[in-house]
Amino acid sequence: MIAAGELQSFVPFGREHCRNHPNAFNLQLRELQPASELWSSDGAAGLVGSLQEVSLQERERECWQLRKGCKGIREEDVEFEEELYTAGTVVVWSQGSRTQASNVYKAFTVDSPVQQALWCTFAVPHNKKDEEEVEQTVCIVQSSCVNVHTITGKDFISPLPFQVSNVWATKFGLLLERKNSATDSQLPGESLPTVFSMLHPLDEIAPIVCKPAGLFESSRVQYASDASMKIVFSCCQPSIVVSYDTVQGIHSVWALRKVTQDERFSVLRCTADPAVGGTGLGPEKYTSCAIATSPLHYSALHSHPSRILTSSPGIHPRVHSPSISNMAALSRAHPPGMATPSFSGAARFNTSFHSQSPRGHHGLLPSANSTVNETLLVPEMEPILPDLCIEQLWSETVTAGCYREMSSQASKVFLTSDLCENHYLCFLVESHQQLRCVKFFESNNSSQLIFTSVTTIPAKDAEPLQNIDAMLVLEACGSLVLYTGITRVSKVFVPGLLSPTFSLTNHVSHFSSAMENVSTPANAGSRHLQRLDEGIMPSPVSELRGPNIKHHEGSFLDDYHFQHTTPYIHALRDPVCNRVTLELSSGTMLRISIPEIATSELVRKCLQAIRFILPKEAAMKVLVKWYNIYNAPGGPSAHAEWNLFVTCFMTLMGYNTERLAWTRNLHFEVPLSPVIAAKKARPSDGGSEEDLDYLLGSHYHRQINSQPICSNNALTTETMSSPSTPSLKLDSSAPLFPHIPALFYVLHLLYQELQLDELQRARASSLVCLLQQLARDLQLDEYVDLYWRDYPSLISGFTESCVIDQALIGQMPRPSFLTEEPPCVLSWLSSCLRGEEVPPFPCLPGICHRTRLLVLSYALYIIGDEHATSTDKSKYLAKLSAGQKNCASEPQYRRQSSVKVQFSSESLAEQLVVWLTSEGFTLKDLESVPFGVALPIREAIYRCRERPCSDWSEEVCLLIGRQDLTKQAHKMTLAKNKASVGSGLSLEPPATTEVDEEEDGMSDIIQEVTGLIWSQDLRVQEVRRLLQSSRPVRVSVVQLPEVSDHEYIEEKENKLLQLCQRTMALPVGRGLFTLFSYHPVLTEPLPVPKLNLTGRAPPRNTMVDLNSGNIDVPPNMTSWPSFHNGVAAGLKIAPASQVDSAWIAYNKPKIPELANEYAGFLMALGLNGHLTKLATLNIHDYLTKGHEMTSIGLLLGVSSAKLGTMDMSITRLLSIHIPALLPPTSTELDVPHNVQVAAVIGIGLVYQGTGHRHNAEVLLSEIGRPPGPEMEYCTDRESYSLAAGLALGMVCLGHGSNLIGMTDLNVPEQLYQYMVGGAPQGSGRGQQGETQVPQLSDQGG
């Protein structure tokens, strides 16, 4: 008996989510309640008559399914479960795991009640290649349509032309079963197709072609129109469908595949006999022929003009392709929304026949019951061609399904495999309480599945456990039993859940004498295996497997009074990996996990090697025995797993592990927990005799005794030759005794595999202890010597040998691959480096993966055989022939496009790197390879790192350490996928004309760079759209009835004025967006985008302008926006660009309206640092023109270019425009006020952070500059004072209170005085300063 783990209650997550779903009020709360809540509710639950009936009816309205999570990541890393829950009109897709709470991934709400929801994958073909891209979807089936939602966000709605009874997910898409109505059976000879396929939501629903098995296989191709055939199971891998014949009561297995061209021609073929075609075929003859053979697929037939139709054999029924008109008729005859579809009669379906004329319309003859209009419409209709074909592989014998008294339809079908990788198709016949297991395997060319024997297991329910190659069976008595394939492993004990067997044993205790411990071929072993059963596997619950107890529930129901109080297991459902849900009789559900066969990686690999080399029967016995021992209730912990495996394995080979010192002391190596250690340390103060025995058997004692090696060998031979007691002999009747040489060899190859992984050193040392014992007993001295050289201090402590009789050694089958010279992978690799001739190295396929990789890598790169990884693998690897098929097929080699067929070292390095990547080899794996072994691979990576190819994948770039190219490789992968149908989000910018790109001023943004930074969305294109100011804005104003046309025009212009404020602010953002993105061409002027302040009014797209005079527009409204537009254009220029004075002057506009933009352009050149190249003559020319905005931009630009330099030439230039910096006797200049403000800011920029006393003093006084005797400075005094304050702050920037040489200025006090006003504290600058503060106080500071 084994113990189940991780017991926890289970409630579907979608049920709780639907309670709070916005659409939940449309659903009755009772629909989402389990049976237990219904039983405990008030008396209002009696809708149908009884509480139990209500619970069953309500529970049918909700359904869910679980699967192993898949998100495009590696399979072994997936640890979460996915749930698809359906209730009413809501479908909830949630994800969760044992370590993370469930969360909603997607939730869907549809209009009508959901009939079915399922996961499905659709294959999307590429345009240029034969490859197909898999698209994962959720399909929601309603009465009239199918909603398909992909994980990439695409939604499709496919209407259904008929009412659907069931939908199945397959490898190619969806299979739809048409619901058969009562009127179908009333129309003889008019059998319509019943199974249809949908390869993609955008494709048309097409009928399925079936190919039954029989003598005339090639001619029996027909449409799947048998109304008695019901699909009960579909699978993607392998692609099969299981059906049930309701008339004959048998199950059949069909292979689902694409239809061939010949089958498509055959199924579209119709009778074209001249005698029959000339006279016409009446409906009476047609019907009689149909009844005599098989149901006809009666529909309007119209072939494609390019097809030549030939006659089919007369003994076979004439089959027809349902045309588009027939599908419409089918839709009318079976409306999806009607519960009882009506049928309009045979006149709706017409039959037309074609002759053998290449033109498809010439031999058209109307049938007797068709009208002229219908006949004329037929040639314009095109048939719906079939896409898929189901070919019969196997069918039950008639005796298996001959129970006429009850239906034998399978309620559950699944695939499972056993520990030796035999595959079974199992279907549960609930009415007979049988689980029928059909064994199958692939043919040699993997093109067909071959079904062999059928085994019946008594079962009430069953579910597969894929991760552990087993299935859980619920027997009729309520016990859980674990099977691997058809081999019974053990009963499963669920903690906290009482087995029904206990209630039976209380009343029928006399059955206990007829019990068996294990009733499978697994216990047909030796006496030693039975001893293991008794000693290690005590069963706390006795199994009732006697002949007097049937598999039905007769005796079980007799004790229902006990079962009613104790909940028992009612059913199994939702298997995922090794977890399954138990449905209890009380209505609750429990989720349990079945333990795996091993948790230690070393034990797992050893079991794989044992399974590979042993015959299947012997391997099955060993694996089942180990599983029972390891997973028994209260079994060993994880750190004792290897010790238990060694003991079990050696015992099965015939060793007496209690007599061998090193196996006897294995249990001492188990570390004790602190609590147990503390308890055991108290009574051991006085010591005991066991302490001495432990010291004598310790590793330290063995190492000290083995110091003199020569004498130790002699002593060993003497001591081992003399006491050849029976205790040190092997038991030749042990089940694995004949297989010891083969087992030793595969474990030795596994040891060589561990030698190639630095992280497996500890495991290799554990394995070498077992190997040295086997090598000593098999008298393989070369192997012992090899182990000595690898672990001298460890092997020196092992001195015992077990004697095997020479007669038994001679009788023991010695495999041909066991050579005297031990295979050593490190020696093989070093021989390659020395250029020696090397034999093929033995390898276990699927187990020694790293050995295979490194051997072939050396053959490719060191030996220089470029075909070593493709066609010449057998030259360097020798696959072992096992007692069974290879446990893993060799992965197919995929030649990359970057591999060049040359013999240079560069091409070999590229080929090696690409091949290693295709095998899943990563940098993490390379780090664990011993450094000396990995050196040639590192050299190849170093060569490829210097010269990478542009078409390498992202994985190759990561392996060679070029992470900088991974985004580029990802970008190329995205670009390749864009051409495919239904590909993901396109990251290319929207298509625009050249005029648009030149106008918006943002065409210089490099899409390749921004695409690498923001590769997941279109934010760059969206920002560009928001910042464009060169197009008219949309002015949407609705004209009310009471508004006149003149008022309506004014409303539009007022709306445009508001929108223009946004447009005029856009240049600031555009300057930030396009900063340093342009390198100008010296022969071309800088393109400056327009600032368009017009609009367009829908729906006639009429122009709206602010110059009409209908509304008041602020004067000079566009002056500063044009200035900022020029700044934004100038900031595009990168600092590293080649700009000279001639190019700056070349950009001066000829139109005066553009002078403001040019002024901003000059300021931007100063911010970029390019204005220093402008000649002094040009500066003088610009300033003497007297254009105010040009002077402002120039002064600010040259000041920014000389930031913090105290440049004297710029200081003189600025001082001319500031009266306070001129000498008292200088001539007064008429300088515009705004230019003075710009000059003051320029002084602050040039002297930024210098703490210059003179300038600080002048600027401090200029903050409170009086309006002057003639009030010449009274206009805009606030702007000048603000500029002076900003300039003062820039001059003193970073100095704070440490203003050296300025303490007499009292700067803080003076600034405070300016803020609060009042009388001045000091004399200031004469009488003029005395009248200053009150005036400032009057002006508000």
UniProtKB/TrEMBL annotation:
Keyword set, alphabetical order: Cell cycle, Cell division, Mitosis
Domain Anaphase-promoting complex subunit 1 N-terminal: 75-183, 564-648
Tagged with keyword Transferase: no
Positions of region (Disordered): 1318-1341
Signal peptide positions on this chain: none
Bias type Polar residues, positions: 1328-1341
GO cellular component: anaphase-promoting complex
One record GO biological process: anaphase-promoting complex-dependent catabolic process
Stated family: Belongs to the APC1 family.
Record's protein name: Anaphase-promoting complex subunit 1
Highest classification ranks of the organism: Eukaryota, Metazoa, Chordata, Craniata, Vertebrata
